């Protein structure tokens, strides 16, 4: 465990340094977030620097690379996929800044990239023989063969979009991702199946821990799609490539909640010609409309994720 702890510490201090360097640079470049007009509670956040995902994602990658002998082909594929999501997210954030509105890449453009990445990951799983699926809480595993391809495609598309939707409040996505990646890393270590991806998980924990110091309410910087898309990509890679795809939905239940509430809201709105289930979706905005503070909501999401992660770990012992 010493190597994982060391990797997390290196990622933490790198992220701390990168945040200190990046935030003033983003302010100088006036890379501020354009706030959606219908989220009235966030009007005061307009102009807060975005693209903060550059700091913690690059920190995690650099920390991972600094530990010799930690990378294998699967880890390299995970790094490539996660970094490609960072590039797409960065392009989206850059276009929003350039156009001075909350519209970057078109929805179809992001969908095409996500579909391509998901299909690539699914093909890699089948060709690399990463077709074993662990069932949470039951201690059993099944080799599902080529069925891993459609499952991987679905998990990638769902995970990336759900993590992206969860990035809506100060500290929410980062605070939820820390216990998520910690639990996934511990599960991988317990099974002794792919230590490089465990190292990557702990690196992400460390880098997010430092970033959260700047992103907790009131946030000094937002991660933007640069960070949220990349986090979703890494979460999907780590889960799918280690046979823990189903654990993503269990440990990451709060991510699922974000995606599910948006789907429910849209379907109900269309079916009832304008009626709503929630005051606003994703549901964290509903809680905000109910009067809960951003800190309290973010803490609750992180706490629930930590508890679910602990339950999964205990069941795997």
UniProtKB/TrEMBL annotation:
<feature type="transmembrane region" description="Helical">
    <location>
        <begin position="221"/>
        <end position="241"/>
    </location>
</feature>
<dbReference type="GO" id="GO:0005886">
    <property type="term" value="C:plasma membrane"/>
</dbReference>
<dbReference type="GO" id="GO:0046872">
    <property type="term" value="F:metal ion binding"/>
</dbReference>
<protein>
    <recommendedName>
        <fullName>Phospho-N-acetylmuramoyl-pentapeptide-transferase</fullName>
        <ecNumber>2.7.8.13</ecNumber>
    </recommendedName>
</protein>
<comment type="function">
    <text>Catalyzes the initial step of the lipid cycle reactions in the biosynthesis of the cell wall peptidoglycan: transfers peptidoglycan precursor phospho-MurNAc-pentapeptide from UDP-MurNAc-pentapeptide onto the lipid carrier undecaprenyl phosphate, yielding undecaprenyl-pyrophosphoryl-MurNAc-pentapeptide, known as lipid I.</text>
</comment>
<feature type="transmembrane region" description="Helical">
    <location>
        <begin position="6"/>
        <end position="26"/>
    </location>
</feature>
<dbReference type="InterPro" id="IPR018480">
    <property type="entry name" value="PNAcMuramoyl-5peptid_Trfase_CS"/>
</dbReference>
<dbReference type="GO" id="GO:0071555">
    <property type="term" value="P:cell wall organization"/>
</dbReference>
<keyword id="KW-1133">Transmembrane helix</keyword>
<feature type="transmembrane region" description="Helical">
    <location>
        <begin position="47"/>
        <end position="67"/>
    </location>
</feature>
<feature type="transmembrane region" description="Helical">
    <location>
        <begin position="196"/>
        <end position="214"/>
    </location>
</feature>
<dbReference type="GO" id="GO:0009252">
    <property type="term" value="P:peptidoglycan biosynthetic process"/>
</dbReference>
<dbReference type="GO" id="GO:0008360">
    <property type="term" value="P:regulation of cell shape"/>
</dbReference>
<feature type="binding site">
    <location>
        <position position="225"/>
    </location>
    <ligand>
        <name>Mg(2+)</name>
    </ligand>
</feature>
<dbReference type="GO" id="GO:0051301">
    <property type="term" value="P:cell division"/>
</dbReference>
<feature type="binding site">
    <location>
        <position position="164"/>
    </location>
    <ligand>
        <name>Mg(2+)</name>
    </ligand>
</feature>
<keyword id="KW-0131">Cell cycle</keyword>
<feature type="transmembrane region" description="Helical">
    <location>
        <begin position="112"/>
        <end position="138"/>
    </location>
</feature>
<keyword id="KW-0472">Membrane</keyword>
<feature type="transmembrane region" description="Helical">
    <location>
        <begin position="172"/>
        <end position="190"/>
    </location>
</feature>
<keyword id="KW-0573">Peptidoglycan synthesis</keyword>
<keyword id="KW-0812">Transmembrane</keyword>
<keyword id="KW-0460">Magnesium</keyword>
<keyword id="KW-0133">Cell shape</keyword>
<keyword id="KW-0961">Cell wall biogenesis/degradation</keyword>
<comment type="pathway">
    <text>Cell wall biogenesis; peptidoglycan biosynthesis.</text>
</comment>
<comment type="similarity">
    <text>Belongs to the glycosyltransferase 4 family. MraY subfamily.</text>
</comment>
<keyword id="KW-1003">Cell membrane</keyword>
<keyword id="KW-0479">Metal-binding</keyword>
<dbReference type="Pfam" id="PF10555">
    <property type="entry name" value="MraY_sig1"/>
</dbReference>
<feature type="transmembrane region" description="Helical">
    <location>
        <begin position="144"/>
        <end position="165"/>
    </location>
</feature>
<dbReference type="InterPro" id="IPR000715">
    <property type="entry name" value="Glycosyl_transferase_4"/>
</dbReference>
<keyword id="KW-0808">Transferase</keyword>
<feature type="transmembrane region" description="Helical">
    <location>
        <begin position="297"/>
        <end position="316"/>
    </location>
</feature>
<dbReference type="Pfam" id="PF00953">
    <property type="entry name" value="Glycos_transf_4"/>
</dbReference>
<dbReference type="GO" id="GO:0008963">
    <property type="term" value="F:phospho-N-acetylmuramoyl-pentapeptide-transferase activity"/>
</dbReference>
<dbReference type="InterPro" id="IPR003524">
    <property type="entry name" value="PNAcMuramoyl-5peptid_Trfase"/>
</dbReference>
<keyword id="KW-0132">Cell division</keyword>
<feature type="transmembrane region" description="Helical">
    <location>
        <begin position="73"/>
        <end position="91"/>
    </location>
</feature>
<feature type="transmembrane region" description="Helical">
    <location>
        <begin position="247"/>
        <end position="269"/>
    </location>
</feature>
């Amino acid at each position: 465990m010493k190597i994982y702890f060391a990797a997390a510490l290196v990622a933490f201090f790198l992220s701390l340094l990168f945040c200190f360097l990046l935030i003033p640079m983003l302010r100088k470049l006036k890379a501020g977030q354009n706030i959606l007009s219908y989220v009235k509670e966030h009007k005061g956040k307009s102009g807060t620097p975005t693209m903060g995902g550059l700091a913690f994602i690059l920190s995690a990658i650099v920390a991972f690379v600094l530990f010799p002998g930690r990378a294998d082909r699967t880890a390299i594929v995970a790094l490539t996929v996660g970094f490609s999501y960072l590039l797409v997210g960065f392009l989206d954030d850059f276009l929003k800044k350039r156009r001075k509105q909350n519209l970057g890449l078109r929805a179809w453009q992001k969908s095409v990239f996500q579909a391509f990445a998901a299909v690539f990951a699914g093909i890699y799983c089948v060709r690399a023989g990463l077709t074993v699926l662990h069932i949470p809480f039951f201690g059993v595993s099944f080799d599902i063969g080529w069925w891993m391809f459609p499952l991987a495609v679905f998990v990638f598309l769902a995970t990336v979009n759900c993590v992206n939707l969860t990035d809506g409040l100060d500290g929410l996505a980062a605070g939820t991702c820390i216990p998520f990646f910690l639990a996934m890393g511990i599960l991988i270590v317990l099974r002794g199946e792919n230590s490089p991806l465990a190292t990557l998980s702990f690196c992400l924990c460390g880098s997010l821990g430092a970033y959260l110091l700047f992103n907790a309410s009131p946030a000094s910087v937002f991660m933007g799609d640069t960070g949220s898309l990349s986090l979703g990509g890494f979460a999907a890679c780590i889960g799918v490539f280690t046979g823990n795809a189903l654990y993503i939905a269990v440990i990451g239940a709060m991510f699922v909640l974000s995606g599910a509430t948006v789907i429910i809201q849209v379907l109900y709105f269309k079916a009832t010609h304008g009626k709503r289930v929630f005051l606003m979706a994703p549901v964290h905005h509903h809680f905000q409309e109910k009067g809960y503070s951003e800190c309290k909501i973010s803490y609750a999401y992180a706490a629930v994720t930590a508890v679910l992660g602990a339950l999964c770990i205990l069941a795997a012992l």
